[in-house]
């Protein structure tokens, strides 16, 4: 692919044959600050596929961090390989050295295929690894506040659509009850919602049912989408909202924790046409990055949770702007993120004394 035409500030290719490390670090923007984004460990079919994913994810992080009000740009790293068989101490530490070589332009954290413990290992070679284990003073599992942020976004959507910020008495269909999805179910049940779930992992479903016996289970995602529900919450893989899904979706609100939910740009308009209120994924799932960012200041869960609660107000702004401007919430969210990047990023032109 044409990396230079991508608009990214910097793309770094990392190779250490001794440990087997093959990685790509993409920095989309540092207009608001150092580029923060997780490290994804995945068996990509080709180098081109890995580069494309890193660039796409880095751009999404720039928008996420901007809309979350953080003084951070957007970046992402991908390590090519199978985390179950290729992950070693030497590989992670070699990767940490490449992160350190960027001098703080890129701050890394967890993503698919990496854990808090992995970041502890990476941090043995760099000052710029975050999302570490609590025993090392880190923020620990960021899925807790990711789910909390999704819940706040869902409350805002309920406020905008039904005039009250609660899911009590509403049916919420949750696709994917891994870490984020299961924490979200806890919030929804406590709020008085009726919940229907599905997951490809039957053990994940069983764990949710053990805590909440009243939760109903759909056979699979295709069945869940067709289940009568007020809210559909995609909390598994990206691309969950495609043409086929939107065509049969009956929910009035779509709000979930999965990244990159829209299979293509036209999906946002299709949701508007069907009368469904879409809460942009990178807006509502920003609780995790807020939790990781707080680690830079000496982690306080209470402080991070208070910041993540602000997702409610930002979501209301996005819904109001979309309505006023006659665009989808996805477009409105992009505009608000871009406006902040331009306005605050411009301040870097005011030179400070050294």
What does this protein look like?
This protein folds into 2 domains: 119 residues, Rossmann fold (3-Layer(aba) Sandwich); 197 residues, 3-Layer(aba) Sandwich (Rossmann fold), CATH 3.40.50.720. It has 354 residues and is of the alpha/beta class. It has a 6-stranded parallel sheet with strand order 8-7-6-9-10-11, sandwiched between helices. A 5-stranded mixed sheet has the order 1-2-4-3-5, sandwiched between helices. The protein is built from 14 helices and 11 strands. A hairpin with a 4-residue loop joins strand 1 and strand 2. It holds the Pfam family ELFV_dehydrog_N. InterPro entries: Aminoacid_DH-like_N_sf (IPR046346), Glu/Leu/Phe/Val/Trp_DH (IPR006095), Glu/Leu/Phe/Val/Trp_DH_C (IPR006096), Glu/Leu/Phe/Val/Trp_DH_dimer (IPR006097), Glu/Leu/Phe/Val_DH_AS (IPR033524), Glu/Phe/Leu/Val/Trp_DH_bac/arc (IPR016211), NAD(P)-bd_dom_sf (IPR036291). It comes from Geodermatophilus nigrescens. Keywords: NAD, Nucleotide-binding, Oxidoreductase.
Topology:
Elements: E1 10-16, E2 21-29, E3 35-42, H1 47-67, E4 73-80, H2 89-101, E5 106-110, H3 116-122, H4 143-162, E6 171-175, H5 179-191, E7 194-198, H6 202-211, E8 216-217, H7 221-226, E9 231-234, H8 243-248, E10 253-254, H9 266-273, E11 277-278, H10 281-284, H11 287-294, H12 301-309, H13 311-325, H14 329-345
Parallel strand pairs: 3-4, 3-5, 6-7, 6-9, 7-8, 9-10, 10-11
Antiparallel strand pairs: 1-2, 2-4
Concise summary:
By secondary structure, the chain is α/β, with parallel strands linked by helices. It has helices spanning 47-67, 89-101, 116-122, 143-162, 179-191, 202-211, 221-226, 243-248, 266-273, 281-284, 287-294, 301-309, 311-325, 329-345, and strands at 10-16, 21-29, 35-42, 73-80, 106-110, 171-175, 194-198, 216-217, 231-234, 253-254, 277-278.
